[in-house]
Design brief:
single chain, Nucleoside Triphosphate Pyrophosphohydrolase, six-stranded mixed sheet, 14 strands, 3 domains, alpha+beta, 268 residues, hydrolase activity, five-stranded mixed sheet
Length: 268
C-alpha cells in the first residue's frame, strides 16, 4: 500500500521509482510499469508529481506529451483490471495526481500561472492571490439494489450488449450520499429504494472520482430506464447473473457481496 502522509515532498532523485504516462496511457515495457531514473530520459517537457512512498521508495508519476521510444502504451482501465489490489491504489493515485497537475497550470480565481508547489501538501499556491489549489476529488455513489432474491442490474447506453452493472452517479451540491443514492436510482430506473447501507469505497481515477458503495432494498415502483442514460435494466436472480464488472472494481465487488448476502439468507 502506498504511504501518503504529509511529510516534505522530495524532488525526483536516482533512488526513487517512477510511473510514466503519456496521452492518458500508462507506459510499460513488457509487464513492467515501475521504473528507475536510469530506465528513461527526462526531457524539458516532462512533468513530475510526487505520489508518496511505496515499498519504502519515493514514487513519482511523470507524464510526457509524446511516448518516448522503447515504451508501449496501455490504457489505465485495462491495466487496473489486469493487476492486483496491491498495485491498484498506486496506479490510481498516480493518474489522479498527474491529471490534477496538468489541469491546474493557471489559477482559476485570478488566471495567473501556478508555479509554486506547497512543500508538504499536494497543493499549488497562487503567488498572486495566495489561493491554494488541491487535487479535485469528485464523490460518486454506486449502489447494488436487492428485491428479495433478485438484484437490479442496468446496461448504460455506452456499454456493450450483454454487459450489466450497478446504478451509479455523481453526488450533487448540498446532497448527502444517501440522498444521492435515492435520486440516482429514481432518475435512472424509476424506482424508490430504502434501507440504504454503506458498504465500501474505492478511488476511481477516471479522472478523479471517489466511488462510495452502498446496498439498498427495493421499496416501490416499476423499472423505467432513463432514455438518455440506460439502454435496459432488469431484476436478475442472484444465482443467474449476466456479464458484470471485474471484481477489481467496486461495482464487481458490490455484486459479489450482494450475491453472498442473499445466499447466506437462503441458508438460514
Amino acid at each position: 500500500m502506498i504511504e501518503i502522509g504529509t511529510h516534505t515532498h522530495p524532488s525526483p532523485h536516482a533512488a526513487a521509482r517512477y510511473i510514466l504516462l503519456a496521452k492518458q496511457k500508462v507506459l510499460i515495457v513488457g509487464d513492467q510499469f515501475l521504473f528507475s531514473l536510469g530506465d528513461f530520459h527526462p526531457t524539458s517537457e516532462m512533468r513530475s508529481v510526487y505520489c508518496g512512498k511505496f515499498e519504502e521508495n519515493d514514487v513519482f508519476v511523470c507524464y510526457f506529451p509524446q511516448t518516448p521510444k522503447g515504451f508501449e502504451e496501455k490504457g489505465l482501465r485495462e491495466l487496473l483490471f489486469e493487476t492486483t489490489d496491491y498495485y491498484y491504489g498506486l496506479l490510481s493515485r498516480a493518474q489522479q495526481l498527474a491529471t490534477w497537475d496538468a489541469d491546474h497550470q493557471f489559477c482559476g480565481r485570478c488566471g495567473h500561472a501556478l508555479t509554486v508547489k506547497h512543500p508538504k501538501e499536494h497543493a499549488k499556491v497562487c503567488s498572486h492571490c495566495n489561493i491554494r489549489h488541491y487535487p479535485r476529488i469528485s464523490p460518486c455513489i454506486i449502489v447494488s439494489v436487492r428485491k428479495g432474491n433478485d438484484i437490479l442490474l442496468a446496461r448504460p447506453l455506452t456499454a456493450k450488449e450483454g454487459f450489466f452493472s450497478n446504478i451509479a452517479g455523481f453526488v450533487e451540491a448540498g446532497e448527502t450520499l444517501e440522498q444521492a443514492v435515492q435520486r440516482e436510482v429514481m432518475e435512472e430506473v424509476g424506482i424508490k429504494v430504502t434501507n440504504i447501507r454503506y458498504i465500501d469505497s474505492q478511488p476511481w481515477s477516471f479522472p478523479h472520482q471517489l466511488m462510495v458503495g452502498f446496498f439498498a432494498e427495493y421499496d416501490s415502483g416499476e423499472i423505467t430506464p432513463a432514455k438518455d442514460e440506460i439502454a435496459e435494466a432488469h431484476w436478475w436472480p442472484y444465482n443467474d447473473l449476466p456479464n458484470t464488472p471485474n471484481p477489481t472494481s467496486i461495482s464487481g465487488q458490490l455484486i459479489l457481496a450482494q450475491v453472498a448476502a442473499i445466499a447466506k439468507d437462503q441458508d438460514r
